[in-house]
Amino acid sequence: MKTLTLFFVLIATVISAQNIRPIRDTVGFCWRAKEMDKLISYLEQNAKGKYSFTNKNLVAAISPHDDFLYAGRVYYPLYPLIKAKEIVIFGVTHGTVRRAMHDPRNVLILERYKYWHGPYGNVNISPLREKIKKEISPQYLMVSNKAQRIEHSIEALIPFLQHYNRNLTITPIMVTGMNFNRADSISSQLATIIENYIKEKNYKLGKDIFFLISNDANHYGKDFDNSPYGLDSAAHKTATGNDQRIIHTYIQRTIDKDDLLNLTHEIWHNNSKPIPLWCGRYPIIMGLLTTTKIVRDLTGKNIEGKLFKYSDTLTEGVLPVKGTHMGLTAPVSTKHWVGFFSAGFYLK
C-alpha cells in the first residue's frame, strides 16, 4: 500500500513539474520572498527623493534583465509604477536558445506551461496566450517549452513584477530575429488579437493590461567580440554615450513606425558603422510596433517614451545587499561590461 501511495505521489510530482516552467537563472535573479523583500527595501532606501515619475497614462515599458546585483537600481524606478493585473512580456531569443533550437527566425515563441515560478508563489498564465495560439497565422508562431525554459529574459522581470502584484498574470512572448516588414506584419495580427481580448475583458490600458519589453543595451568587450572603440575607460565612455544617444533619439520621444524603422538601422546589423549589441533589439521593435497599433486603434492616441534610468555594470558596480542567494553571472571590467536602461511609454 505504501509503495502504491509513493508511486502516485511521484506521478503527481512529475505532472506538477511539467506544468510549472522551471527557473533558468538561480544566481542572477532572486527567487525567495524574504530575499526579494530585502532587495526592494535596500533599493527603496537608496532611491529616496531620486525619482518623481508617474504611472498616470503609463501603458508600456522597457526593462533590463541583467543580474539584480548589477542592475537593481535601473529596474527599481519602473516597477512600483506598474499596477496592471495582466502583463504581456516581449522577451529575447538569446544565443543559447538559438543554438539549441537551430536558430528559429521570423516567429514568436510561446509555450504550454500552466504556471511560471515566482518568489511569492506560482504565476498564472493569461488566457490571452491560448487566444494568440489559436488566432495568429501559423507561419508566425512557434510553440516550444524547451525554448522558453532555456531563455532567461522573461523570468528576470517576474520577481519585480510579483513583489508589487501577488496576483500577477502574464503572457510570455519570445521574439526571434526577423526583418522590419515581417515584424510589421506579425505585430499587426498580434495587435488585433490583443485588442479583441481587451474589448472582451473590458480592460483599460495601463490599469488592467500592460506591455513590458525585456532588453539589455550594449554588451561590450572581448567576450562579446564587440570592442570597436578599444578596451579602456575612454572606450567605455564612448560606447555608453552612444547607447544614450540612441535612447534619447528614438526612445525618449513620440513613437511612430518610421522612427522604429530608423531605430533598426541603429541596433540591427549594419556594415557601415559599429552597432551596439542590444540583446532586445527584436523585442523592442516588435513590442513597440504592437503597442503603438493597439493604442492608436483603441484610443486614437500615440505613445511617448520617457527614460527612467540608464547605466551599465561597470558604472554601477555590485549592490551591497548581503545575506541572499543572489550572485553574479558575469565579470565586469573595461573589457567586459553591459549597459541597460528602464523607460516608460505614456499615452499622449
Please explain how this structure is put together.
The chain has 348 residues and is an alpha/beta fold. The protein contains twelve helices and twelve strands. It has one domain: Protocatechuate 4,5-dioxygenase, Chain B (3-Layer(aba) Sandwich). Strands 1, 2, 3, 4, 5, 6, 7, 8, 9, 10, 11 and 12 form a twelve-stranded mixed beta sheet that branches. Strand 5 and strand 6 form a beta hairpin. Helix 5 crosses helix 8 and helix 8 crosses helix 11. About 3% of the residues have low confidence.
Give descriptors for this structure:
348 residues; alpha/beta; Protocatechuate 4,5-dioxygenase, Chain B; 12 helices; 12 strands; globular
Task: Please tally the helical runs, counting DSSP H or I stretches of 4 or more residues.
Answer: 12
What's the domain count? 1
**Shape from CA axes?**
globular
CATH architecture: 3-Layer(aba) Sandwich
What is the CATH T-level topology? Protocatechuate 4,5-dioxygenase, Chain B
In terms of structural class, how would the helical and strand content be classed? alpha/beta
Tell me the total number of β-strands.
12
What is the arithmetic mean of pLDDT? 94
Distance between the termini: 66 Å
CATH class: Alpha Beta
Which band does the percent of strand residues land in? 15-25%
Helix content: 40-55%
In terms of per-residue confidence, which ranges show pLDDT below 50 for 5 or more consecutive residues?
6-16
Outline the biggest β-sheet.
12 strands, mixed
CATH superfamily: LigB-like
> Which H/E pattern describes the elements?
HEHEHEHEEEHEHHEHEEHHHEHE
Backbone CA Rg: 20 Å
